[in-house]
Amino acid sequence: MSESTLFRSEEMSLVQLYIPSEIAQPTVTELGELGLVQFRDLNPDVNAFQRSFVSEIRRLDEMERFFEKQLEKSEINTRALTTATYYARARSAQEIDDLEERLREHEVRILQMNTSHEKLQRKYLQLTELRHVLRETAVFFEQAESRQDSIRNLFDNQETDTAPLLERDVEQANFDGTGLNLGYVTGVISKDRLPTFQRVLWRSLRGNLYMNSAEIDEPITDPVTDEVLEKNVFIIFAHGREIISKIKKISESLGGTIYSIDESPDKRRDELLEVTSRIEDLHNVLSNTNQTRRAELLKIAENLTAWFTIVKKEKAIYHAMNLFNYDATRKCLIAEGWCATRDIPVVQNALRTATESSGSNVSSILTELRTRKKPPTFHRTNKFTEGFQSIIDAYGIARYREVNPGLFTLITFPFLFAVMFGDTGHGALMLIFALYLVLNEKKLARQEQDEIFSMFFYGRYIILLMSIFSLYTGALYNDVFSQSLTLFKTGFAWPSNFTTGQTVEAISLNQTYAFGLDPTWHGADNALLFTNSYKMKQAIIIGVVHMTFAICLNIFNHIYYGNKMFVWLEFLPQILFMESIFGYLICLILYKWSVNWWELDASGNHIRNSPPSLLNTLIYMFLQPGYVDPKDQLFPGQGPLQMFLILIAVVCVPWMLLGKPYYLKARHSKHQYETVAGDEDVTFDHEEEQDGHTSANEHHAIDDEEEEEFEFSEEMIHQSIHTIEFCLNCISNTASYLRLWALSLAHAQLSTVLWEMTLKIWFYYTGALAVVGLVFGFSLWFVLTCAILLGMEGLSAFLHALRLHWVEFAGKHYLGDGYKFEPFSFAQALSTQ
């Protein structure tokens, strides 16, 4: 068994479990606590509602749903999930039944209180509306009495233009015109429906009514929906029983409520006093009911998280068991799943523990199956490596046992970030933030976090390494908040005799600054020109080395997957093509750096020509093969060497294009010949022997994946695309690494501008103005540094480093066509639900 490392994914085994039905639940419980087995669905054609344990899952769902709604409605928060509750064991079937009975008792009590509360609330609503009706109608009756004469004239004037359209209609049949006895209807209706109510009445009764309304200024709560409603009190005067009946029907159809009140003012006053008294009593009863119900819900809320944790674990168990199959006698459950090979003894121990704790005499059986199925990819990570592995997994899950770039990302990702973000001061601020997250990780993990902070917390170790590498590159650039530090003896000296405004040139002391950029360059007129050239060449070197390393990782994949010929047919032409062009460019850069181009002879003349442009050298290497202008020549024999390198690059193109497809064609033809020959030589005894060895796996062999048919034309098309893509990407990806230069330059310039515009300007003032200005300037500088240079620039550098790893690095070797190992785990079930 190989040792577990991050270099490759874990070795996986397909295991088959035979679990007796009586110990199925405790066995799956033990496996859920371990989180080491990913179960396969053995019933892919069975509908989700027709699985074996659907009824149990529905029962558990009902146990959750009611209390969640009640607590949410009452705005009561449940207790946070504690570590002890999180890791509490799953319960037995008897304990689940007891829990269900306990929850049902609580549910019955809550339902009884809800029903009582709803009845009391409805009665309270009716009394509140009646109270407003009694108050407002007293005013309406007074207005009606004062306008009684005008109302009578309205109905008596049959011969005027205001008479009803039909003089002898049904409502007028019993009206003799000698006297008028007005009826009235009082009630409450929704404010939104009042205009509709008025229009319908006017059209239905043809204007034979007198109506008045007033808004209720007190909020009315619906007892069913708990919504606050706006309502109006109305009173309608009309004559005739038929009209009064019609008004009531229209009101009720529009959701209005009719209240009968007496005509006598004294009786209305007595009724108002009585209603007010009943409302006060009812309010006290409602308050007590609410307190009792809330106390009950608070009592439930204290234990509800623990109860629901148990319920969710049980649901996860039954969901997992729905993936299993019954044997022919339905006395045993058969499960299949993937498990890390080195974890099989742990799983077997868990099966024995489940059997012993259940007191059963029949134990579960684990069998390791041989299969051609594609296993899942499982990288065993810890809290430090988890974030870096997530960066790779976001691009694509590695193929099973493929070289995992996540191991190298631990170093390359923070380093490339730091190349773009290099500043010792900014790195120190980031380090403080990272150390806060790392040193308080246990405390912060227990707290509830928002989405943004949780992302920072998840990547705390990524931020830690990025800040450490930023300190290093910042020291290399000699950049601390856009300022420089003189820690060692400088290699230059400024002349002492010069006039103001005169351009002076530093004098070389023939020594080199011990580490990083010489501080003499800081503030020089040609500092940008120097750092620009240095960082651009540095980006090319880092990029080519990074991509070369990625190409070399193909060797490990080819050898592991048994394709050693691919090392000669794919890796070798790729690395030769890459190094013959861009590897040569790196050598030119290093050679140019190592030569003193301004060295003088004894006569004071320059020994060498001025340093040539490497970009022009690379261009003319292809435009004029084999020829180098003597003025631009770096070393003797440069022309023939470049011609030889171009020939190697040209030869590598058909090598990559044709070698692999024709090799695969020859291997496929040989495989077909061996298969046919082997089938003819198989004897009957050998067949029996094979049947004896594979009978246990016979049902499983049917599901094994078939080998893909080889098609030479498709392979040629695929290899042509791959060859063209590789050759073009060698150029474009190398240029893409220039982002290291561009972002580093932009970060340094932004830091310089921020320093000069917010803080440096106050150094020229004195007195109180200087003090106030420095305080204000420092505050502004610090806020903008954190917001722009750490926040925005940090995010920009992070995204660019991410792109370099996904496209330029992973694109050279990473297949990324696997699928993730997702074991059955209670921890995962509790975090997702």
Automatic annotation (TrEMBL):
Key word Transmembrane present in the record?
yes
Record-linked Pfam families:
V_ATPase_I (PF01496)
What is the protein name stated in its UniProt record? V-type proton ATPase subunit a
Q: Where in the cell is it found?
A: Membrane
Q: Which GO terms describe its biological process?
A: vacuolar acidification
What is known about what this protein does? Essential component of the vacuolar proton pump (V-ATPase), a multimeric enzyme that catalyzes the translocation of protons across the membranes. Required for assembly and activity of the V-ATPase.
Q: Which residues form a coiled coil?
A: 89-123
Q: What GO molecular function annotations does the UniProt record carry, in alphabetical order?
A: ATPase binding; proton-transporting ATPase activity, rotational mechanism
Membrane spanning residue stretches: 415-438, 458-477, 539-559, 571-591, 641-658, 761-790
Keyword Acetylation: yes or no? no
Location, primary (coarse class): membrane
Query: What is its membrane topology?
Result: Multi-pass membrane protein
The protein's organism comes out as Umbelopsis vinacea
Q: Which InterPro entries match?
A: V-ATPase_116kDa_su (IPR002490), V-type_ATPase_116kDa_su_euka (IPR026028)
List the record's Gene Ontology CC terms alphabetically.
fungal-type vacuole membrane; vacuolar proton-transporting V-type ATPase, V0 domain
Write the record's keywords in alphabetical order, separated by commas. Coiled coil, Hydrogen ion transport, Ion transport, Membrane, Transmembrane, Transmembrane helix, Transport
User: So what family is this one in?
Assistant: Belongs to the V-ATPase 116 kDa subunit family.
